[in-house]
Structure formats: structure tokens, C-alpha cells
Amino acid sequence: MFKNIQKQLLLKYPLLWNTKFIPMLIIGVLLNLIYFFIGYADGTLDFTKYYHSGLDFTFFSFSTLISLIILILWLVSYFKNNSFKRFYTKSKYALFFEWIQIVVIVLLLSMFYFPFEFGKQLHKRNYLSEEIAKERCDILSSADFFIDGSFDEAEIDSVRSVLNDTNVNGEYKAVERIYLDHVNILGKKYSPTALINRNVAEFSFFTREQDSVRGLKIRKFLATNNTIEVKKLMRNYFSILKEHKLPTNLTEDKWFSITYNYPEFKKYELINPKSPFTKDESYAYYEPYTKHGYDYAAHDKTYSAYYIEHNVLKDNYRQISGAYTSPFFEIEPILVLLYCVFGFSMLIFSFRVTSGRSWLIALVSYGVFNIVIGIISGVSREFLTYPILLIMSFLVVVGLFFSVVLAKKTKSKTMVLLNLIIWLFGGLIPTIYLTYMECYQNSISARLNYNYNLDPHYNFLNDNVTTMFGLNIILVIIGMFFMSKVIRSWKGVSEE
Fold it and tell me: Which residues cross the membrane (predicted)?
């Protein structure tokens, strides 16, 4: 099938035939579909177990190896025929379209992580709608109050505490925080280890403020002896537990009776948040199942004989809430991928339009140049020396190249310069932007006593670094459009 496609392309669309774009497009799409389904399978949740990704570094190493092998085979085939040099005259925009095809091929072979993560995240979202998942996370978060939730700290005793290192009558006093023996909740004093001083569990669906409001709501239920709402919460929790067939030796009535102790809420039993039969201990950062006991000691927990497979339930719902609150695609990793793809495509494209000899000379020259300006920067002990020299050198190279092109002098002397221009122009704007940002920071450091956040212009520069990198991608594409026309004109300059 591929041979027939290539034959038709050779007759009708020689550029697509030359780059092997259609076969590589099919291979790239199929590979990414495979990675998507692998990710979808890896996102499977078993609500009776902790979630573990079944794939590790080995999988991604294997994926990288497959992409490299396919890329090398494509490059061998692609470099066999160079229509720019041998076969036929290029149309005005043919070089630009050829570069775009190189970018697409390299992108398809290197983006396997993204369809994999997309499939995994999509599968986790598909278990429950966002509305139902958020409602259930609210119930699980609230129920933590009556199982094994953490405690709020008591207030610091400002009279007996030493809040800063100090000297009193010539005697050094180190920081020492002493806490009150009670907490004030809704106008009443309770023991710091009272059940009413518990915290709710955190889920990514909710902000800290929403968690605080939820905790306050439960404390109001307890302080006003609203047993109806407390029992309703426990009933809703048990319905989720039973739906997922998780073990417990509690009933709703028993759970209420051993934890609810109005009005002091001081005497209660600790519910073990994991079954003693749980085999997976990867998340078992709680103290082990021990014995029947009362009260809570901050560093010496003793659980009652009752347990609920609460930690497993929380872990799975945290996976779902994380899938909903995390975007499918984040801009920073995408930009990193695009810059790597564009950089590699520039290397391929420059090799294509110049020669292997000039490409190697340019590579060695660039390496030596970086060593030299690195030494100069080190001797000057000034960080900005390197980017400034890099920018100035790039402008000199551009000037030399265009002086030859406009004067239509010998082309062979500019091949090395053309390679350097293609490689470096994509990083010109980020280098200028970051250099200016560093210079501006140095100029305001003394005036603002190194507190850069007080300067609105610096904040603007700092807040828009990602935007700058994104816009630069667009400018690189526009720049390559015009550069391809320049390279086409450059081809007409004589070799000698």
C-alpha cells in the first residue's frame, strides 16, 4: 500500500514523495493511538486497592528507542534524494512546506508522553461525572472527621512562649513555642484532642478555604448536637463504601456510638483507616493496627478494634479528583516539547539545504565559540557577558551572510554561516528577553533592596516569560517562511 501511495505522490506531489510524509504521518498517528490506549489501560482504577501505574521508566525508555529507530530509518530514506540540490527547481514556498513536514514528522515521533497521559487521565474521569465525584469527595472529606483526621493546633501561649531568639538579663533564650491546653471553637473551650478539633481530608477539588468552611460546618453540627446531620453523613459514607465493596467491621449505629460523645467529645475510639487484611502497604504511613483504646495521643496512636478501608477509598477518589482538576495539556511541557522539536527540525533542515561538510564545520565552530565566550564570561565574572556576546555574534553572522547574498558573491563561503543562522535565530528573542530582564533586575536591585516584586515592570516581565516563549514559536514559523525564500535565492549564487 505504501509503495502505491508513494508512486502516486511521485507523479503528482513530488515534495510529499521526497519527504515520505504520508507514510510517516500514518506511522506517527498509529503510534500515538497505541500510546493513548496504553495510557487508557494504565488509568484503570480498582477501588479495592491503591492505585499504582503499571508502567515505569522502562516503558518510556522503550518508547523513546522505538521513536529513534523509526526516525533514523526515515532520515536514511529522506537524505537519499535531495531535490533542492539535484532534481528540479523548487517552487517559491517549497522549502518552507518541506520544513513544516519535517516538524510534523519529528513531533509525531516524540510526543508519545502526551497521548499516554491523556488516555490515563480520560479513563479516570470516565468513572464518575465531575458533579458526582465532587459530591462524593465532599462526603469522604467530611467523614475523615470521624475516622482518623488530623487535629488543629492549639493557640500559642504568648506569655510563656519565646517567639524569637532573644536575650533576657544577659541569658540567651531560643525560640520555644508553648501551646495552650485548650482550643476555642464557636465560643467554647475544648481539649486540643477533642473530636471536634479534627480536620477534614483534602482533595484537589477543593481549596483550603472550602476545606475550612466544610470543617466549620461539621463543628457546628457537633457543637449544636445536630445528630441528624452527623448520622446522614455516616449513612452517605457507608453507601459509597458498600458500592465499592470495601471491608469494614462497623455499622452506622456502632460508628456513631463509639465516636459521638456530646458535649465534650473527648472520649471516643479511633477507627483504623485501613483493614488489617490490606496487603498493599505502599500508602500505609499510618501507625499499625494495635488494640482497643480511647483518646488520641499525638505521637502514640492506638486504634480500636474497628476498621474501615478508608485510605484506599480516599486514594482512588483523589485519583479521580486529580484527573478533573489537572488540565489535559499544560502549556509548559508542551512548549518544552515544541522547542526540542523545532531545534531538531532545524538541524535536519540545515543539513538538507547546505552540505554535510559545512554542517559539521558549523557544529564544531559553534562548540569552540561557546567555549571561548564561556571563558570570557568566567574571567569577567559577569553572567550577562555570555548572552550579550552571543547576540552580538549572531547579528555579525547575519550581516556577513546577507552581504554575500545581496552582492551575489561565492556561495560556498556562506554555507557555515547559513547553518549557524538556522540554528540560532529561534533562540534570539528569548535570549534578548531574558538578558533584558536580568539587566533590569540588576538596575533595580539596589533601589528596592533586592525586593524585585515591588517593581511593576519587573513583575510584568516575570509573569509573561511563558507567553514570550509561546509567541516566539509563532515568530519562528513566520521567520522560517521568509528564510526559506532567502535560502531559495541563495541557491542561485555561484559555488565559486
Answer: 21-38, 58-76, 96-116, 334-353, 360-380, 386-407, 416-436, 465-483
In this structure, the chain runs to a length of 496
Query: 401's torsion region: left (phi>0), alpha (psi -120 to 50) or beta?
Result: alpha
438-448 residue pLDDT tens? 888 877 776 66
According to the model, what pLDDT value does residue 289 have? Answer: 36
Is the torsion defined by CA of 95, 472, 418, 483 positive or negative? positive
Residue 453 cell numbers, joined: 516584586
Q: CA-to-CA distance for 361 and 417, rounded, in angstroms?
A: 10
Query: With pLDDT > 90 as the criterion, what percentage of the chain qualifies?
Result: 39
Question: In the prediction, which pLDDT does 59 show?
Answer: 81
User: What stretches of 127-207 show up as alpha helix (H) in DSSP?
Assistant: 130-143
DSSP string, 66-90: HHHHHHHHHHHHHTT--TTTTTSPP
Give the pLDDT band (50/70/90) at residue 5. Answer: low
Say yes or no to pLDDT of 22 above 90.
no
In tens, the pLDDT along 181-227 reads 778 888 888 888 889 999 999 999 999 999 999 999 999 999 999 99
Question: Which sign, positive or negative, has the C-alpha torsion 387, 393, 396, 398?
Answer: negative
**Other Cβ atoms closer than 10 A to 407:** 9
Give Cα separations from 297 to 155, 192, 269, 301, 321 (angstroms): 18, 10, 12, 6, 31
Domain chopping of the chain, boundaries: 1-126, 130-151+193-324, 330-496
> What DSSP element (H or E) covers 172?
strand 171-173
C-alpha cell, 258: 463509639
Residue 477 and residue 339: Cα distance in Å, rounded?
Answer: 12
Q: Are 484 and 99 in contact (CB under 8 A)?
A: yes
- Rounded Cα distance between 299 and 170, Å, is 36
Angle CA 121–124–130, to nearest 5 = 105
178: left (phi over 0), alpha (psi -120 to 50) or beta: beta
Residue 189 phi/psi, 5° resolution?
A: -90, 135
